[in-house]
Specification:
alpha/beta, 10 helices, disordered C terminus
């Protein structure tokens, strides 16, 4: 009888020990979310996310909450001697969490580490030629997204991204779009959309506009709203279109109306509300700017392997 009683007394202890690994992360997250964002952190968001001031109080508070969860759950690692500070953490977290506004999200659930280099970085690559010969080389990148829970960024290019929020180039938006894309189980330009009807509409619109961009890139057309890098693959098209959606929303809505509608349905925001409508060009000739050649040895914007 005493043995039975002793066993019963131990049951709550055993149950608590089993539940602790599940309860503790939730408890620490609640504590992190309950703390107010430091004024210095809010100033960083205001300074380094140019659309922040135009978002309105409700979205600002939502973004702050997402940023707090992001920084609580993710680890930042400086590379090549870079010391990661709060300016870098809040800037990267804030831009990454723009993609999560108004959407149910576990805040990049598979992501655990952000590696930050001072500038563009070299990565080893292997390339096979037509004869099957594999050669090793190094490639210069501005950012990289992995499906094993890592994102790699060049801080110099993060800064370039927020200093010009109208050029459609933003390495943080680009790489974190890849992270969203991979949540569907495959990095293929089709993130988790929730229904078959959504996938059918997404596929029809993005396939058409992807083919158009490939045509533009092949013939060197310089008047495209979307960067030609998006013609590399469906995954890169989604990432480039995400940059354009948030940084050049008026131009994208004008030139790619159906694509813009798909992205509004997915991201559940309309960035046109945050940015003034650009002035119309002075004349038809301004639609055909002179081609600009990429500099020799230019860094590749990103790296992701995918197929539609």
């Amino acid at each position: 009888m005493d043995g039975t009683m002793d066993g019963l007394l131990w049951l709550p202890v055993v149950a608590l020990a089993l539940a602790a690994p599940l309860m503790y992360p939730r408890w620490t997250l609640r504590r992190a979310l309950a703390r107010p964002l430091p004024p210095a952190a809010a100033a960083i968001l205001q300074r380094n996310i140019p659309v922040y001031a135009s978002m309105g109080p409700a979205l600002q508070q939502q973004l702050q909450r997402l940023v707090k969860q992001f920084l609580h759950q993710k680890k930042f690692v400086g590379c090549e001697g870079l010391e990661v500070d709060d300016e870098m953490r809040y800037t990267i977290a804030g831009q990454a969490c723009l993609l999560l506004l108004n959407r149910p999200s576990k805040v990049y659930r598979a992501l655990h580490t952000i590696l930050v280099y001072p500038s563009a970085f070299l990565v080893p690559r292997q390339q096979m030629d037509a004869g099957g010969v594999v050669t090793a080389h190094k490639q210069t990148l501005l950012g990289e997204s992995w499906d094993d829970g890592r994102v790699v960024l060049s801080w110099a290019d993060v800064k370039r991204g927020y200093r010009d929020w109208t050029d459609g180039h933003n390495v943080v938006l680009h790489e974190f779009a890849h992270q969203l894309d991979s949540e569907s189980g495959s990095t293929n330009g089709a993130p988790y959309l929730g229904s078959q009807d959504s996938y059918r509409s997404w596929s029809a619109v993005l396939s058409r506009d992807f083919d158009t961009l490939r045509y533009d890139a092949y013939y060197g057309r310089q008047d495209s709203v979307l960067d030609h890098y998006g013609a590399t693959s469906p995954a890169e098209f989604f990432a480039v279109a995400t940059e354009t959606f948030f940084e050049k929303p008026w131009q994208m809505a004008d030139r790619h109306a159906a694509l813009y509608e798909e992205f509004m349905k997915y991201y559940r925001v309309d960035p046109r509300a945050w940015l003034p409508q650009p002035q119309q060009p002075a004349g038809p000739e301004s639609l055909q700017p002179e081609p600009v050649a990429a500099p020799a040895g230019a860094a590749r914007r990103s790296y992701a392997i995918a197929s539609w």
